[in-house]
Each structure stands twice: as structure tokens, then as C-alpha cells.
Amino acid sequence: MKKVPLRQCVGCGEMKSKKEMIRILKTEEEGFVLDSTGKKNGRGAYICRNAECLKAARKSKGLDRSFKMAVSDEVYESLTKEIEALESE
Length: 89
Known about the structure:
Elements: E1 6-8, E2 15-17, E3 21-27, E4 31-35, E5 43-48, H1 51-60, H2 62-67, H3 73-88
Antiparallel strand pairs: 1-2, 3-4, 3-5
Helix pairs in contact: 1-3
């Protein structure tokens, strides 16, 4: 039986498989982006595929802790738009 890699959501704190979650990535060139493949280089944090978890992460400063730096409001707004676009698909 193959082991399923689990990751913790920075919003709600639930442990889920990597496939069920979205990876938020901090890169030198692009800044903060959503990594749909889960294989891009850079520091990553995982979040559930809904806007409520992103709101919870913003309130509890989950992304700030994961990336060990302050995450600006513009980043949260752009991530919210990208997650809402994924939800509507």
C-alpha cells in the first residue's frame, strides 16, 4: 500500500492529501503565486481549495508564519481572486 503525503492547511489546520490542496508559492522572480502542479521551486504553504480557508489564514496570519515575513494585502486579494476562479470551474 502506497503512503499518501499529507499537508496541513494554514487556514483551518486540517491535514489533507497534497492532491486536495493548493500550494501557495513564494518565488524570487514572481513573488507569491498559486502552484497548481505542486512541483515549482520555492518556499510553499498549503491551503484548502476554498476562500474561507484563505480568510482564516489571513486572520490568523498563517501565511506570514509559513513564509516568515509579512504578506501584503495585495497578495491576499490576488490569491482570493485566483482561488475564486478555481472554485467556479
